[in-house]
Design a protein that fits this description.
The protein is an alpha/beta fold. It has five helices and six strands, in the order βαββαβααβαβ. It is 39% helix and 17% strand. Strands 3-2-1-4-5-6 form a six-stranded parallel β-sheet, sandwiched between helices.
């Protein structure tokens, strides 16, 4: 008998996170949603998922939650491009520093796969259309920059530790 894979969705109470969780549950995986509910609602979480209210910045919580986790879907971030230009300090802390610590903890806990919610803001102004994955990365706001930094960090982690990665760039 093959056991179900365990997937941790960080930001599972958000709009995208709730849909991702639903889809993963529909495909018969064990899902845990981790969300601090700072900008989302508990009611968004699929009833089939285990819910943990907490922050992905809490390393002791991650130590427990990541045990036996096969994959992480990281959807939690500050996401207002305009605000990021006014408050780069909080965007650096949440989107870069806390995400790198999360990724490092996943590598330490031997998580096999990491899916990162990025953004098309990493491209900046289009050099050509349609934009494809070969398009140069040149963000025009700090939010896009934070996402680009994490994509690059994940690329290196993939080379160094063999964690499999995917970065989703939403338009």
């Amino acid at each position: 008998m093959v056991s179900k894979k365990n997937i941790l969705v960080i930001g599972g109470a958000g709009y995208i996170g709730s849909h991702v969780t639903c889809e993963i549950c529909d495909n018969n995986y064990n899902v845990t949603d981790l969300d601090d509910l700072s900008s989302e609602f508990r009611d968004n979480v699929d009833h089939r998922a285990k819910f943990i209210e907490g922050s992905f910045a809490d390393m002791s919580l991650l130590d427990k939650v990541l045990d036996g986790t096969d994959a992480v879907v990281h959807l939690a971030a500050l996401k207002a491009a305009g605000e990021s230009m006014i408050r780069p300090d909080i965007y650096s802390e949440k989107n870069i520093i806390q995400s790198i610590l999360l990724i490092n903890k996943c590598v330490e806990k031997k998580v096999k796969k990491f899916i990162f919610s990025s953004t098309a803001a990493v491209y900046g102004y289009p050099v050509y259309l349609p934009i494809n994955e070969s398009h140069p990365l040149n963000p025009i706001n700090y939010y896009g920059f934070t996402k680009m930094v994490i994509e690059k960090h994940l690329g290196w982690q993939n080379k160094i530790s063999n964690i499999k990665i995917a970065c989703l760039r939403y338009f």
